[in-house]
Write a structure and sequence with these properties.
Low-confidence stretches: none
Shape: elongated
Helix content: 40-55%
Number of strands: 0
Distance between the termini: 48 Å
Structural class: mainly alpha
Radius of gyration: 19 Å
Order of helices and strands: HHH
Length: 75
Amino acid sequence: MCTALAGLEKIKVEIETRAAKDPALTGVLEAAAGTSLSGSIKDAEAFWKVFFPAGVGMMDKKDEVVEIPSRWPTP
């Protein structure tokens, strides 16, 4: 079997296994599949909820201020 096809099969099995343990996953996957393809970060959050949960809401966080006391002498 082609490596890419084997990888897809592993993803399918992983999702099926996880969905069997978490019935809510089906709705989350459907929301991700129905999201806009606009390229907007906000639109990507439904997809992130499945594959990158730590990223959900990160664009809503306020900017953090970082102070740089001086320039780095040797870039």
